[in-house]
Write a structure and sequence with these properties.
single chain; 253 residues; Rossmann fold; 5-stranded parallel β-sheet; globular
């Protein structure tokens, strides 16, 4: 006879909704409030700007034929654009595969091929490894850079008209939102398929044990392998649900 042990908290009710709709359900109410703050520069992205950027990327991706089941690779440290890339991909019906910022070109190539990524978003300092990996994986023409970078297309080229963001029908319980990869301790890194429902449930579990209010500012420091950026994005974007600000940085203050 089995025994079920319950914790001290109430059961979590998981709504049948995609991760982006869940996270930004109340963002419109707080359009002018800072959503993301870049730690090193102080650059601030409001809720309205963040949602607008996500919708613009979803629109641009859809116009390029990116849709349900397609994969966008995100090879960046903590930046406000990380959340735009992540949610832009899921809003277009696809999924994001998140990469350790310390990966070498060969490691990036493995993940690009294994995940079936069609495009990659990165930053200038990572371009050498990104371009080599993309060429070897057969997507050399689909590398986009946030900021400046020679030999790659600007991230802004991917942006379309936010008003034309697609309305995609998703099954939150079955459709994968993100493909993070294991550390590869016992072999090559392996993709972990997390559905929209998985991410929504995780955010609700976190919310049940960690109280936040609208005046709070949360901080995320990139811990790479021990706390991959996809997990940081889960916490970071979850802050929008509760209308707090989130400071993103790769360097402790």
């Amino acid at each position: 006879m089995s025994t079920i042990h319950t914790g001290p908290h109430d059961d979590v009710e998981i709504p049948d909704v995609d991760i982006t709709s869940f996270v930004f359900e109340r963002a419109e109410e707080h359009g002018d409030k800072p959503a993301l703050i870049d730690g090193p520069t102080g650059r601030t992205v409001t809720y309205a700007e963040l949602v607008g950027g996500i919708r613009a990327l979803a629109s641009g991706l859809a116009a390029r034929g990116f849709g349900k089941g397609d994969v966008l690779a995100v090879y960046m440290p903590n930046l406000p654009e990380y959340a735009i890339a992540f949610h832009g991909a899921t809003s277009a019906g696809g999924k994001a595969t998140t990469m350790n910022p310390l990966y070498t070109a060969s490691e990036v190539k493995h993940q690009l091929e294994d995940s079936g990524a069609k495009l990659m978003v990165t930053i200038g300092p990572f371009l050498d490894a990104a371009k080599q990996a993309a060429e070897d994986a057969g997507i050399g023409d689909e590398v986009y850079v946030v900021g400046e970078g020679e030999g790659a297309k600007p991230f802004t080229d991917l942006l379309g008209d936010p008003a034309e963001a697609p309305e995609v029908e998703l099954d939150p319980a079955k459709d994968v939102a993100v493909l993070p990869y294991s550390s590869g301790t016992t072999g090559l890194p392996k993709g972990v398929m997390l559905t929209h429902r998985n991410l929504v449930a995780n955010l609700l579990q976190t919310r049940a044990t960690q109280e936040v209010d609208p005046d709070d500012v949360l901080i995320s420091i990139d811990l790479t392998q021990d706390m991959d950026v996809d997990r940081i994005v889960g916490i970071m974007t979850g802050s929008a649900r509760y209308n707090v600000s989130f400071k993103v940085t790769s360097e402790p203050d």
